[in-house]
Amino acid sequence: MQVSVLQVGYDDDEPVAARVDRVAQLVADQRGADLVVLPELWAPGGFAYREWERRAEPLDGPTVRALADAARAAGAVVHGGSLVERTEQPGPQGRHLWNTSVVLGPDGALLASYRKVHRFGFGAGEPLLMEAGEDVVVVDLPLGPEGEAVRTGLATCYDVRFPELFRRQVDLGAELVLLPAAWPAARLAHWRLLTRARAVEDQVVLIAVGTAGTHARTPMAGHSAVVSPWGEDLAEADADEQVLRVEVDLGEVARCREQFPVLADRRL
């Protein structure tokens, strides 16, 4: 499987519409990739809380439409990172906003969506403004040989601190996990530790995609990575905007689980 990891960098001076056009073209340029993965909230701004209400969109809004066109141009499955989704009906807490990831097929069709379960902000930011997702999402994506389905778990950023979510994904058959993020540079060490831990303990390929640059006065960590089920870095970015093109052998998941069958020894 050929994977393109798009570590998008941006700052507060770039208009959202211009960023959407720029990133959509970057996605379209990834011809030959089987999977393209973008970061969390790259269009509305990961820490741009004050702008989320104004920048929110439905899942058939301009950002997803642009990504769908780009997926068709690239002929790839595209994990569009996440956006601030606006729904007509409120959630359980009476809010209309969600941090929602989308996965699009090579034909531009919506294959899956995931609403972030664990909201970051300790009562402010996401918990104050957004609803929490409730569903653990594992979806079959046509990423194996000859388009065979690969069981793929979806998670977002702060979710990585909650291992029970990923263990539940394994119980649902996940062999690949896609983790877009907007992770701050101040906690880079946590990002590197936690992403490797989730890959090792669940024996999955984990693709973790962060943002670069500085926005809302927050320097971003970058350091997107593709991690094997053994915890080895198949590729890692630096702190700047970067595209990683990585060959991933998904068969390594089965080999790892056979050679080191730790999951079979679970008791709790």
From TrEMBL:
SUPFAM superfamilies the record matches: Carbon-nitrogen hydrolase
GO molecular-function terms, A-Z: hydrolase activity
Pfam families per the UniProt record, alphabetical: CN_hydrolase
Residue ranges of every copy of the CN hydrolase domain listed in the record: 1-250
InterPro entries registered for this protein in UniProt: C-N_Hydrolase, C-N_Hydrolase_sf, UPF0012_CS
Keyword vocabulary terms for this entry: Hydrolase
CDD domains the record matches: nitrilase_5 (cd07583)
Lineage: superkingdom: Bacteria
Family: Belongs to the carbon-nitrogen hydrolase superfamily. NIT1/NIT2 family.
Protein name (Swiss-Prot/TrEMBL): Carbon-nitrogen family hydrolase
Organism annotation: Quadrisphaera setariae
